[in-house]
Amino acid sequence: MAAVAPTNGLILGALKKSSVLLVTTAQAQHPNCPVPAGNDLILWHLHLTLHTIWICFKLFLGCFLCRHYCKLGSTREEKCVIKGSCKENETNENIIILGACLVGIIGVSLLVVYNCSGQFLTIRERRKARSRENAIQLARQQLRAHQGWKAAKQIARKHVTGVQDHLSRTFSRRRSFRQQTDLENSSHRVQEARLMGSTGPNERSDSIVFSAQNTSEISEVMPSVVMDISNDGEVVATNDKPAPKGKHRSTQTQIFKYAYGEIELEKARQEENKNMSFTGVLAKVKELQKEMTRPLLKVEFKNLTLSLGKRKLLRSVTGELQPGRVTAVMGPSGAGKTTFLNAVAGKVTGYQVTGSVLVNGAQGSIRSYKKIIGFVPQDDVVHGNLTVEENLWFSANCRLPARMSHRDRVLIVERVIESLDLQGVRNSVVGTVEKRGISGGQRKRVNVGIEMVMEPSLLILDEPTSGLDSSSSQLLLKALRHEALEGVNICAVVHQPSYTLYNMFDDLILLAKGGLIVYNGPIKTIEDYFSTLGIHVPDRVNPPDHYIDILEGIVKPESGIKAKHLPVHWMLYNGYEVPSDMKDDLKAMGEQSPDVDINRSMSGSTPHCLPAGVTNAFAQERNRLEHRLSKPGDLSSRRTPGILKQYKFFLGRVTKQRLREGRLLGVDFLILGLAGICLGTIAKLSDPTFGMPGYIYTIIAVSLLCKIAALRSFSLERLQYLRERESGMSTLAYFLARDTIDHFNTALKPIIYLSMFYYFNNPRSSIGSNYVILLSLVYCVTGIGYTFAICFNPGSAQLCSALIPVVLTLLSTQRTTPTFLKNMSYPKWALEGFIIANAKRYPGVWLITRCGLLFRSGFNIHNYQLCIVVLFMYGLFFRIVAFVAMVLLKKR
Ligand SMILES: Nc1ncnc2c1ncn2[C@@H]1O[C@H](COP(=O)(O)OP(=O)(O)OP(=O)(O)O)[C@@H](O)[C@H]1O
């Protein structure tokens, strides 16, 4: 009892310290949260954390009471006899209690961190936001100054000539004197003007000479520009603040200032360009083309045919996508638009593909250019537990050239945020199905932004405007048009665009059902083409709607032409060969109009697709594996960050995700702790069994809980992973980063479980030896969990994770189970490790009398280290299996 009292005080003291720490942490956060919502949030966190501490306190009190009553039990005397010294036993118990206290303190501190983790991230973001806002203000001021300075230059130029002429003609002493006085006055005015602002760095070298008479006029136009008057009466524009150099330049505010300076200038240029004449626009485009830094990608597809068994999803698709143009892909639902995009981007696996896709006129795999191809999927595959900015930054970091400076990256990301109008939600978490985040339209824009920030040369978008209102769609199209000006080849599937939106595209690919092209060319000429077929768009009808209605069969063309013949008309119009399986259509058309030359147009055989029976399921699977394992050489000439750098980015991302999921982890720990209390109490410790029942329960419970937690690591973000992999990110970096962060749990979970189990069960082995075994067990089962998560669908993976530990533990404890099978199951090694750790604590004769159990179970007292090694090896083996499975993973 004497030993318990000081320990009680110790726990109370520790708890007090924790609560003080908690309050101080919250108070430290308080001044940084000027927003009332932030204060509420902190109070809520405080409340939650204090509540948790109160629960922990009650738990510990319960532990002490239990412990106190146990001490009065009969087992204690027996233990004293076995160990030989009661005094030594008491010292051990005190160490255990101290250990438990420490564990408690760690637990409480962790809960504090977990509860406030989200806040840490928010505070960081807020600080960054403040420096960004300052930079935006500065940039806008500078732009105003820049514009003012330009206007002033124009005024000055106008006056300089006139005044000089005037002066040369009527030069007089009196006038000269008056001018001198004016100069002095204006000098004072300019000195005042100097205090008001500065010009942009671009204007530093600019200087202009003009009469001081005009100074007041100029200072009205450009209030923030700085001027200096030289002794001879000349006014020279200067910058009063020198451009920051060296280290200073790389501060966050400076970087934002640079980025927003550029963005504001671009905006101003766009405003100027609005009123430009056609020739002016052409000149501007040429100018921009000279500045282009991205490689240009021209994609041609010839006789592209895609089949799935006997069914043809795309048929003889021929055409091209040109750089610097925005192409719309339209057609009825199910026509094969998504399939077409996938075929162009080289993302088709498991299909039979014939025909060819040429990049810049050269034959080869388009996957060789995947580092400069952006693909925006139809579904918004974004990370729900990251903010908008974090999503964009991750893509920029991993996919932009590794050598690009941070300053330029900031400019690119900020430009995309501005152009997609995401400024207001940049720090909001995107949200998941369970947790609401930003709106659907904003999510869609983030989905597009992820691809825009990597500066693609070919940008393919599957329904980017679906779910967006008219203004957001136009905003998005404007952003895409701006990209096209830089030479990007853009191709997007769109549904029912408004007339304005439709006219924002340059080209159109119109697909009919069955994956056949009806039209491919400039939007401007589509009406001319269809009018040659006698199809005219009625007044007040949007042209694309009319054509799609015809293709759907809702509207019958006045000319009597059949909708199903439109693809053949297109082939004949362009002189393409008509596949032989479409000869019936051709004949029917020939009967309708005798101009159609059937023999010339028809191809002799079916060159585009293989007979359906040839490609069986096995061949398809082989195809898929070849596609997955073959690594086409990289022709994109872009060096993205290597595996190590990507690992760093992945690590940062997973850490943020885990911090935001802090409560989920807290629940995991709580369940483990409760399991420890329950199993430690239920399992009666008896010397003849070395506490075997308790350890069997432990192995089952810990395996089950840790495996299910490990499933979350890889099964939840499968689609995101596939998207990242397709864009060229490293699977190894992704896998290692997740595993590295999970090591934190691997180390902590055994502590939490043992802090309860060890205390309630009070086994003979040391807490250290138990921890090592449990650590290796958790490492092993986490690896198995990864394998299940990657190889099976979530339902099956959960079932396996629940069943396997129970079945294997039962197998390994049955005497009738063959030794080979026993050795194959990991619970056998964990159990052996625990039992040996206990057995080693029995001195000589006490061990000999209990040797029977060891023999019967096939355990060897010298195998303790082997058990640990085997468990770690299992963990490593399953991690390798999981990684290989991940590499071979296909998109379901
Ligand atoms: N892997 C597949 N298995 C079975 N059918 C498929 C597969 N891929 C495509 N299809 C079929 O091919 C046709 C074209 O599909 P796709 O998704 O390309 O159409 P879409 O024009 O994009 O349709 P929507 O406009 O409705 O999105 C559909 O009938 C679809 O069922």
TrEMBL record:
Question: A single GO molecular function, which one?
Answer: ABC-type transporter activity
Q: Which CDD domains match?
A: ABCG_EPDR
**Domain ABC transporter stretches:** 299-538
The answer to keyword Ribosomal protein applying to this record is no
List UniProt keywords, sorted A-Z.
Answer: ATP-binding, Membrane, Nucleotide-binding, Transmembrane, Transmembrane helix, Transport
Compartment(s) where it occurs, according to its Swiss-Prot or TrEMBL record: Membrane
Annotated membrane topology is: Multi-pass membrane protein
| Keyword Nucleotide-binding attached | yes
List residues traversing the bilayer. Answer: 95-117, 664-683, 695-715, 771-789, 795-813, 866-889
User: Which top-rank group of organisms is this from?
Assistant: Eukaryota
The entry's cellular-component GO terms read: membrane
To which protein family does this belong?
Belongs to the ABC transporter superfamily. ABCG family. Eye pigment precursor importer (TC 3.A.1.204) subfamily.
Q: Which PANTHER family match?
A: ABC TRANSPORTER G FAMILY MEMBER 28, OS04G0194500 PROTEIN
What is the name of this protein?
ABC transporter domain-containing protein
**Which species?**
Triticum aestivum (Wheat)
